[in-house]
Structure formats: C-alpha cells, structure tokens
Amino acid sequence: MTFKLNTTVPWGRTLEEYVKMFSLSDTDLDKKLIGFGDGPASFNQEMTSNGKSVVSLDPIYQFSENEIRERIEETRDIVLEQTKYNQEKFVWSTIKDLDDLEDIRMDAMNTFLEDFEEGKSDRRYISHELPAKTYFLDKDFDIALSSHFLLLYSDLGLDFHIQAINEMLRVAEEVRIFPIVNLNGERTELLDDIIKNYAGKNMVLLQKVEYEFQKGANEMLVIK
Length: 224
Prior knowledge:
There is one protein chain. The protein has helices spanning 15-21, 26-29, 43-49, 65-85, 98-121, 158-171, 191-199; strands at 32-36, 53-57, 125-126, 141-147, 172-178, 204-208, 219-223. Strand 4, helix 6 (158-171) and strand 5 (172-178) form a beta-alpha-beta unit. By secondary structure, it is α/β, with parallel strands linked by helices. The longest helix has 24 residues, at 98-121. It has a seven-stranded mixed sheet with strand order 3-2-1-4-5-7-6, sandwiched between helices.
C-alpha cells in the first residue's frame, strides 16, 4: 500500500507525554528505544539532546521537512476544530484548554521539524510502514513503543496488528502500546484476541499509566 501524505494528519507529542504514556522510568530512558509511528513528535529530538538512544520509524519520514510542515499547516485547524466539537471527550487538566493544546502540539512539531533533516542523516528518523520488516537485527532494541497508532486504528484488522506486533517483538525485548482504545474512545475490539495470541508465549499485561487526555485512555498494553 502506497503511503500518501495528503491522507495523514500529523500531530506530535513531547518527551514528557511519552514518559507518562509509556510509564518510562529513568532506567527505561537509558535503554535503546525504538518508536513505531512516532510522526512529528519532539520525543526523538528531546531524547537525543539528553544523550539518550532512540530511533523513530514512520512512513511520513519519506517526505521533506517542507512537505511535512505544509501538511501540518493544512490540518492543524481541522484537528483543533474536531477537538473543540468533542471537548467533553477529553480530560482538561494537564492540558488546560484548546489554546494550550495548540501550543503544546505546535511546539512539539516545530521542534521535530527543526531536527528532522539532521535526524534523517543520523538515521534517527527512518521511513518505514508496519507491518513490513525492518532491517534491524533480532533484539537490537530494549523497548519498542507505539503511540496512537496500533490498537487505535482497529479498522486495520487483527492480522495487520499481529504482524506489526510480531515485527516489534522481533527487534525489541519488550513492546508497549498506548492507548488501548479505538478512534471512538472505546476499548478496542481487537484487544482480547491480541492478548490471547501472545499470552501463551509472552508475558502480557495491561498497565495503568499517568497520562489521560482522551477520557478512559489511561492504559497501555505491554508484551515481553
């Protein structure tokens, strides 16, 4: 399937949010991390500036800085308008209001954009689309992360998710996926089947996390 920029809605998150979404301890942050579907998050830049090791994968990285910037500008108001229309579905505590949300997201994405070309040269940003196999060796990483992609887009189907998680487990000792709700904000209908698929050969658990912006989205799936 050919990935098209005009069908994606870039929306970036920060290191602080990643820490809370994935319950990343100081020890975790010192490990080798890989993020699948990181998009225009500032997570990689912030980690790198702190001397940490992380590689981010996303099909959006095949495009140029200017192309991604243009797409962000095309979609930002649409996302904010949708959020405004559905304000009751969100928890306005850490993020205070729509203006605060816009500031946080745009700061994160601008930080990403300023780092993008250098990060591509350093092989920290790699164009890749799950469930395709990466070029990494088995267990090259300690922890693989999926933020707001797997499970959220349940319409991709169970087979897609199993193949994608299998590749994440191939390259990393542990997989963490957040959130475990679908686009309707309901616990994904795929969850039970995914847990059943891995429970026999892996340690599988649902873990509550500190992060909750979308109401009810405060758990991650851990497979190791």
